[in-house]
């Protein structure tokens, strides 16, 4: 009788070990699915921000002109326009800085980063970013992002 109880105890232990393994596999599958859902949500929010920024910049011909000229040739603007353009461009830089930092912190999938890297690089390679680098407000942006921008500019032969 004691041997039978020991056999039942052993069988129960094996069954419980198998059940634990199955539940861990299930948790792993759930975590993977949740990660994909979170990445999709993050990418959707980024796209919504892209659209919102573009709509705001195009809300008037003057804003569209200022952001475009500041990005391409800030010296072509009057002092007052440069100030306004700087803040508009600063909002765009903050957005691409966020994309950069999300990628650095592995919050974006490689595919999502590839689809946004051209936007980030387009901003950091612009004349407006060069103006931002010379401005005291550049200290309010993340140091690793500013360093990335400087490295990209050097890589493309753009002098500060």
Assign a percent range to the helix content.
Answer: over 70%
N-to-C SSE string, H for helix and E for strand: HHHHHH
Largest sheet: none
Query: What is the end-to-end distance?
Result: 87 Å
Using the alpha-carbon principal axes, give the shape: elongated
Uncertain stretches of 5 or more adjacent residues: none
The class by helix and strand makeup works out as mainly alpha
Strand residue content? under 5%
Oligomer: single chain
Rounded to an integer, what's the Rg over CA atoms? 26 Å
Per DSSP E runs of 2 or more residues, the count of β-strands stands at 0
Kindly state the mean pLDDT as a whole number? 88
Q: Helical element count?
A: 6
Keywords: Membrane, Transmembrane, Transmembrane helix
Transmembrane segments: 7-29
Overview of the molecule:
The chain crosses the membrane at residues 7-29. Keywords: Membrane, Transmembrane, Transmembrane helix. With 160 residues, this protein is mainly alpha-helical. The model has no long low-confidence stretch (mean pLDDT 88). The longest helix has 56 residues, at 2-57. The protein is built from 6 helices and no strands. The radius of gyration is 26 Å and the shape is elongated. Helix 1 runs antiparallel to helix 3 (79-104) and helix 2 crosses helix 3.
Overview features:
membrane, 160 residues, 81% helix, transmembrane, 6 helices, mainly alpha, transmembrane helix
SSE blueprint:
Elements: H1 2-57, H2 61-72, H3 79-104, H4 110-124, H5 127-134, H6 143-155
Helix pairs in contact: 1-3, 2-3, 3-4, 3-5
Keywords: Membrane, Transmembrane, Transmembrane helix
Transmembrane segments: 7-29
